[in-house]
Amino acid sequence: MNLKKTPGLDLKKSFLTLLFKWRGSLYKLCYRELACFLVLFCAISLIYRQALDGDQKSFFEKIVRYCEKYLNMVPLSFILGFYVTTVATRWWQQCLALPWPDRIMLSIAMYIPGCDNESKLLRKTLLQYCNLMAVLVFRTISEAVKFRLNTLEDVVNAGFMTKAEMECFKAVKADCNLFWLPGLWFCHRLREAQVQGRVIDPFGAQLIMRELLEFRSRCGLLWVYDWVTIPLVYTQVVTLSTYSFVFACLIGRQNIDNGNKDIPIDVYFPVWTVLQILFYLGLLKVAENMIHPLGEDDEDFNLSFLLNRNVKVINVGTHAFTSDMCPPMEGD
Amino acid sequence: MNLKKTPGLDLKKSFLTLLFKWRGSLYKLCYRELACFLVLFCAISLIYRQALDGDQKSFFEKIVRYCEKYLNMVPLSFILGFYVTTVATRWWQQCLALPWPDRIMLSIAMYIPGCDNESKLLRKTLLQYCNLMAVLVFRTISEAVKFRLNTLEDVVNAGFMTKAEMECFKAVKADCNLFWLPGLWFCHRLREAQVQGRVIDPFGAQLIMRELLEFRSRCGLLWVYDWVTIPLVYTQVVTLSTYSFVFACLIGRQNIDNGNKDIPIDVYFPVWTVLQILFYLGLLKVAENMIHPLGEDDEDFNLSFLLNRNVKVINVGTHAFTSDMCPPMEGD
Amino acid sequence: MNLKKTPGLDLKKSFLTLLFKWRGSLYKLCYRELACFLVLFCAISLIYRQALDGDQKSFFEKIVRYCEKYLNMVPLSFILGFYVTTVATRWWQQCLALPWPDRIMLSIAMYIPGCDNESKLLRKTLLQYCNLMAVLVFRTISEAVKFRLNTLEDVVNAGFMTKAEMECFKAVKADCNLFWLPGLWFCHRLREAQVQGRVIDPFGAQLIMRELLEFRSRCGLLWVYDWVTIPLVYTQVVTLSTYSFVFACLIGRQNIDNGNKDIPIDVYFPVWTVLQILFYLGLLKVAENMIHPLGEDDEDFNLSFLLNRNVKVINVGTHAFTSDMCPPMEGD
Amino acid sequence: MNLKKTPGLDLKKSFLTLLFKWRGSLYKLCYRELACFLVLFCAISLIYRQALDGDQKSFFEKIVRYCEKYLNMVPLSFILGFYVTTVATRWWQQCLALPWPDRIMLSIAMYIPGCDNESKLLRKTLLQYCNLMAVLVFRTISEAVKFRLNTLEDVVNAGFMTKAEMECFKAVKADCNLFWLPGLWFCHRLREAQVQGRVIDPFGAQLIMRELLEFRSRCGLLWVYDWVTIPLVYTQVVTLSTYSFVFACLIGRQNIDNGNKDIPIDVYFPVWTVLQILFYLGLLKVAENMIHPLGEDDEDFNLSFLLNRNVKVINVGTHAFTSDMCPPMEGD
Amino acid sequence: MNLKKTPGLDLKKSFLTLLFKWRGSLYKLCYRELACFLVLFCAISLIYRQALDGDQKSFFEKIVRYCEKYLNMVPLSFILGFYVTTVATRWWQQCLALPWPDRIMLSIAMYIPGCDNESKLLRKTLLQYCNLMAVLVFRTISEAVKFRLNTLEDVVNAGFMTKAEMECFKAVKADCNLFWLPGLWFCHRLREAQVQGRVIDPFGAQLIMRELLEFRSRCGLLWVYDWVTIPLVYTQVVTLSTYSFVFACLIGRQNIDNGNKDIPIDVYFPVWTVLQILFYLGLLKVAENMIHPLGEDDEDFNLSFLLNRNVKVINVGTHAFTSDMCPPMEGD
Q: A142: which residues sit within 8 A by CB, 6+ positions away?
């Protein structure tokens, strides 16, 4: 039994070691833009040195100086900082909003006892309805899950839904997202169980019901995060500023004859300019990475892992009442 | 059945693709101001070049230098960053405060069973009272809903209220906003149902009641957001600074003969100045867009969509007890 | 029946229109300081030009340059940004902490039925105790309410308290703020009602009790906000910096003969300096305005409006059980 | 009966009036450092002018220029802003975590009735256990309370604990902080009361129990704030930067012959430098003041006031059932 | 009995005294990097002075000027401020998410009475299951606990688990983290106790169950913090910028002949540069220290202390019902 299933980073060491990771790294995210930049930068440099005559050169030098001035005109770092903070907050709140069936599972284990098959079936069905609700809402908001579970038939084949459930689901005609339908079934079955005396007391039914509502709210919250995104104009302002900065660097950082550049090293490889672009572009990529945490990027939440884990948890929770599962109490 | 009803952005791709959206975009929001700026900029440039004589020119050049100095005097980006963050927080909290009847619907489905017409009617009435409460509070705070549902008769015609309910509502004489009146009716009907034995146990009635209080609190919270706005003076400081910056650009960025501008390109189209104005004005528009999220702008919350969706949800929730709606439980 | 009682701003239009408001505006808050500044500025300018001889002038010019340097020494905008954000957060949290009796009113309407006079009286008394608690805590923390309701007799005359209640209140000898005393009476009456069978079940009594505790907590929270203010030293740092900046402007922005000012326009009216002062002073006024939101400024929370509204709400809630108040249920 | 016991600031007036407060003020906190600075500044100035010869002077002038450069090298205001915000957030959260027995008092008043001595004793004992828990946790985390209540005997003498309770407390042998022990006694007495029928229904016992858990959590939270402080390295970075800035000012702001200082006023009293140091040092003092809010500084929370207030509240709450305490209900 | 077990800082004194701490200090964290920097700095300085000839010198001087320019190009402090704030928020939220068994302990003490051995055993077993859950989740996410309790046998030896429990735990075959399994046992035992009448009423069982769910949620939250870390790219941007700044200092701060450095003091020990590096590197170390708060650094949460403390608390809570443990109630 392995203890750790999490694909998280090893954060115990110095940050310096993190600089040499590739997966989900700055380099992986920026190398395309950076390559373009370097190619264009060299091309412009070559043209300036080889193809232009004196007048053209001096005109070009004016443009360089003009672009160079712009580099200090927009306080890019500031607005990137605010934007990244806003995006990161949303990202983490979405992570906290992920629905977990564990609380419902424990409540059911407490209040719906019984080792007979019917009790087991009841417990399993209730928990599967919850997981199905999560599956259905994930299909709506996550490209990765949508790709894996494109039609309801795929959901059935993946084992999250039975055929009969699919029929019932399809039978409801309503022109809105019906991911919460299994929640209704849950209520129906829970009430039935209470009436039949399978729930040991009404306190239990109320507690289970409350946990269901909490589960439902989290699904709905995720859906709201998908419905209402950060206003386009904010993202555009930040993106436009960053890319126009990169573009201004392309020309404004050229090494010109009468400029204030002192050494030829810049011609061959503009070290600091590249670092500066990595800095600004990197921050933009941080935001790009976090604004849609349910996709298929390296850093996105692993929803498939979550759904499969839930199935296993439900299985353990359902069969938790065979006689040998609970250890005896022992005195000191 | 389409899965996705959300008009959200497609955030999976690079931010670069978002630069070419028009709806709710930076360009759509700023093009008027920008056009004015460019026309005036050119006009001033022409007057300077054509109409002024030497002394006037040198006087004008002094003004240009004077304005240019101002451009660095006020740290605009900083205060815009703080202001936008404050506004964005309010905006998102309002989004989270939107009332959804789903939790009440599930509670009712759990605790008020029955396939007979009276049970259905009871369930439907209770849920419609909630939605009516939302409608009434939205009419108060949202221009879009107010426009669509101007009088109570419009609300009746739109099907959110019955005639009898309108009479009852109008019969109450109180000089204050009465959007919570359907909540009182809800309590009355719920108590009646409990006394008649339609609610399976008092736990259920308490749970439904609590969800109603939660729903009521959210409506009230939205109303408070409308009642207490960000202090006018904060908005004025930010607006005044931004527009005085734009105005200073109009003169301070003119290309004058003895200035430190190097190339004539600025005369025809002041590229960087336009980008800088887009940057600052864009941030102001972000705030303008988000400070009143219940209006009719592109980015505003779609309350009509929400109300119509609620009606459909209520319908499904009400009729959820016909025998074939809940799938059978199946073992493995 | 008017829908909207809120004195809020019309935020649907462009921010530009907000620049021309007077009530609660930047101009209203700053015009005194600004007038002083301009008068002193002109006086100094006149003295420099008319009264000083050559040596004195050159000594004055040194002082001007010395002051001018200071203008860039302290990063005022930054610290003002942080301070305003802190104050604004407190301000909004106080707004959210305002106690509303609506939730208690609904709970009582659900669980304490009856159209007879005694039931009505019980409902009304309970709710009035809540409102009285709010009145008493507001008297402690708000100058506006304290002014209107200076003595307990004023509270009685305003109808928030009966004479008998005043006697009871005065009978308690304890050297601490007793605003929560009506809460004790509430508990007493509620228990009495439960014992007499006026509350339909103990679930109801518990729910009402919980809502009372919530109401009490909000009153207490407002009191804590009044008890523990932002540390004086923080406010002093910000105020001192802003005013020393304004003072430095008074001298440092004078147009001197050998200075780097280019045009005489500054002599008559220092446009940009005024805008800059409006900017910094405006931010300080934002904080001054929001740090004590329960006073009598234009932007302060309208507590009298709130208390009067509560009385009306309580009235409606109390009499909500005459037979014609609740509309009949109607099928489709 | 005085309404207001709070030692809070009068925040209704302009911030300008706050500049002339001494208690808890910027001047009180910084005058020592400032006096040192001025004495050293003058001493260095005198040595430079009187004791140094030409070569030494020119060497000293080099050092001055070197130090002056540093003043712009570290963006002090920025990091101070972030640090102060972090500290202020913690400070306020600790204030919100202070435990108040009022909610428990109201719950007990509702559910444990009776005017006989035993009921009174029960109510009083329960509430005193809560206050005792607060006393014990305050002794652990607050120097001021620890000083006043050094030994358990002091606690007994101050009336927060009886002798018998002290014996019981001391009888428990466990090598950990036992401030929560009175909570256990509370549970014991409450269960006893429920079994004896002194609590009117189990709903009441549950509600009282929940409020106790909430009270316990707040005590624990305060203890956690004491256990886990802001990492030392953060505080050190900020402190080191501020004091090295002040030190650099000491030399870098000297008025040297060949420097760019224009007027001799700086020699006698460096006005702006002092203001700047007040600014940065003041912000550091804001943090120093708020990082340990339970001490004995002017701005620290007045825990003794709180404990004494609680005793009075408990007294009122205990004796709230003599027949004349609750006013009669009166119709309109 | 010692009152204070917390290894916290003494924050009552001036921050100046904190500068001389070594444990967890800036110096301890940065001295390695700083030593490297100084050695390299001197080496480069020596090579420049001794080994280079005129042309090489002038080439080197160009490189110095080139690097010096970079030092102002990236607004490091800004982005470090945002990053540190983000990390510090996570760090504190993890601290608040630490699970404490105290609330469950009090609930059990209230609702599961009895001095007989079976009651004691039941109470102890329930609480040990909670602590075991904490142990198991800590093993997953904390290196320190994992090191101490590497195998389940170690957990048994440390007394957190019995042999029988280990067998039961190992008997469950599921390919996911099963730290919540003791929670299932808890539910089983609690239901058993309720059925046997050991819990005095179902209210109690519900309250205990709710506290268990809360405990479980906190364990899960800690696990989520371990699962989803701050995106690598954000950390890389910040780290890369800081170290490239240090590297640029290495060359750009060299004292060259034709540079604008004025005094030779810089050659022997670059005071201000070292302070500046301490400043930026210190902030990075703050983040490095706080990003993984469950490790073995000086500032990390002391989980072993926590687990041992819990064992003691559970012991006291279990045996809290011997007759002499609760003091008698005494009148005034």
A: A294, A295, A303
Nearest to D290 by CA among D89, D3, D31, D64: D89
Residue of A nearest to E76 (CA): A77
Q: Do B312 and A175 touch (CB under 8 A)?
A: yes
Whole-number Cα distances in Å, B133 to B177, B218, C315: 11, 11, 19
DSSP annotation of A190: H
B220 has a chain C CB within 8 A of its CB = yes
Write the ipTM.
Answer: 0.91
Q: Look at D25 and C140 and tell me if their CB atoms are within 8 Å.
A: no
Q: How far is CA D20 from CA A228, C236, C239, D289, in A?
A: 49, 9, 11, 19
Residue with tokens 């009978």: C171
The candidate with the shortest Cα–Cα distance to C306, out of C5, C3, C2, is C5
Q: Could D316 and C66 be called an inter-chain contact, meaning their C-beta atoms sit closer than 8 Å?
A: no
CB E266 within 8 A of CB E89: no
- Does residue C162 belong to the interface with chain D, where contact is any CB pair within 8 Å? yes
Contacts of D329 (CB under 8 A, 6+ apart): C121, C122, C125, C189
Contact D19 C236 (CB under 8 A): yes
Residues B262, B264, B270: CA angle, nearest 5 degrees: 95
Q: Which helix (H) or strand (E) holds E201?
A: none
Interface of A with E in 165-194 (CB under 8 A): none
Cβ separation A276–E85 shorter than 8 A: no
The two three-digit tokens of residue A170, written as one number = 């399809």
Q: Name every residue whose Cβ is closer than 8 Å to that of residue E267 and which is 6 or more positions away in sequence.
A: E45, E255
**C-alpha–C-alpha distance, residues B204 and B192, integer Å:** 14
Question: What is the full per-residue pLDDT of chain E (332 aa) written as tens digits?
Answer: 233 334 445 666 677 777 777 777 888 888 998 999 999 998 998 898 888 888 888 888 888 888 888 887 778 888 888 898 889 899 999 999 999 999 999 999 999 988 888 888 999 999 999 999 999 999 988 888 888 899 999 999 999 999 999 998 988 887 888 899 999 999 999 999 999 999 999 999 999 999 999 999 999 999 999 888 888 888 989 999 999 999 999 888 887 776 555 555 555 678 888 888 988 998 898 888 888 888 777 777 888 888 989 999 998 888 766 656 788 887 65
Residues of B in contact with C2 (CB under 8 A): 175
Query: Inter-chain contact D81–C85, Cβ cutoff 8 Å?
Result: no
What is the C-alpha to C-alpha distance for residues C163 and B157, in angstroms, rounded to an integer? 49
Q: Does C321 touch chain B (CB under 8 A)?
A: yes
The model carries a pTM of: 0.92
- The answer, for D197 touching chain C at a CB cutoff of 8 Å, is no
Contacts 24+ apart (CB under 8 A), D269-276: D269/D38, D270/D41, D272/C66, D272/C67, D272/C69, D272/C70, D272/C73, D272/C248, D273/D249, D274/D34, D274/D37, D274/D38, D275/C70, D275/C74, D275/C240, D275/C241, D275/C244, D276/C70, D276/C73, D276/C74, D276/D249
**Whole-number Å distance between alpha carbons of D224 and A156:** 48
Report the distance separating Cα C228 and Cα D24, nearest Å. Answer: 13
